[in-house]
Input
Amino acid sequence: MEILKDYDLTELNTFHIKAKAKFFVEVKNEKDLVKLFLTPMFQESEKLFLGGGSNILFTQDFPGIVILNKLKGIEILEDDSETVLVKSLGGEWWNDLVNFTVERGFWGIENLSLIPGTVGATPVQNIGAYGVELKDVLQNVEAYEIATGEKKIFSCAECKLGYRDSIFKRELKGKYFISAVTLKLNKNENENLRYKTLKDYIEKNNLIIKNPKDISRAVAEIRRGKLPDPKILGNAGSFFKNVYISEVDFKNILMSYPEMPYFLEDLPSETVDGKLEGVIKIPSGWLIEQCGPRHGGGSWKGYREGNVGVHERQALVLVNYGGATGEEIKKLAYQIIDSVYQKFGLRLTPEVNFV
Ligand code: EPU
Output
């Protein structure tokens, strides 16, 4: 295990923002991890744990130590006639785990196909897409306490997963390193087609769903049509969370904007602190699409200024056209937040973490 200095992080964040870490280390096994945790230099430094770098925006160089999770391995722990427990170490690429499970006909995470990032990062923000969240299948999370190097197993309930939220973003922020995740998956047919876009896509294309791989393929097609590939165009998926509002607020806004799309069926789990603000999802992508730069009069969707912009097919996604700084993206994000607030009185919250 080698600790490197002034390490370039451009290739380690999907926004492709140029930033450096003062110190950098790759962890490939759990023994090294504990050894690292017990070194005084490590304990004294500011720390940043990195997986796929798909939910992060560097606004400056990182003055401490970046730890890259490279713990690899996927295994089946238990297997009965109905369910199967699959354990994956945190440094595995999430989509490789999805492929491992769908290839074997296990149901549960096929709707979460193609989400960029590593397995270890998935409980932190309780990844979710197309009607499924990690919460629905998570059995437990293994993590090392940074202060002591001790390993702890968190049950799914202990992780307090909510909409893009968990205990690891709150009380335990920066306190644990997630080393493994175990999922409980179904061996019998258990398709989830609650998400309208997915259901419509399958019907429109006359797809016959026989196994989880068929769903995985459909999800991948939808994602490819809407979301830019971070390998080609720097981005971090949805930059903002969707907005969940109460029925009263909903009715008020609807009076002025009767065409506003809303979703009742796409309810994610409650947040750590209790309930979502409301039970009606208003897609932030639509809100952003309705607003634009104050002096331009147009829509943010497809907007570009210099190196940064808003994706033309999904307004929730901010992009780096090449050479952008984190500050430029952040500035655009706050312009968008302000304009949506001014028009609708709704405040967007970034999903991406600023460093
Ligand atoms: N919409 C617009 N304009 C846009 C984008 C969306 O009007 O530019 C409206 C449309 O009415 C559309 C609806 O929003 O029907 C829903 O759009 P979509 O299915 O693309 O989903 P989303 O709510 O915009 C969320 C997640 C995505 C996830 C999809 C599918 C959040 C913050 N985002 O987006 O997650 O893939 O649902 O389940 O909850 C991510 O977190 O990085 C991410 C991509």
Remarks:
- The chain has eight helices and 19 strands.
- The chain has a mean pLDDT of 94.
- The chain has three domains: 4-69, 74-226, 234-354.
- Residues 131 and 266 are 6 Å apart (CA to CA).
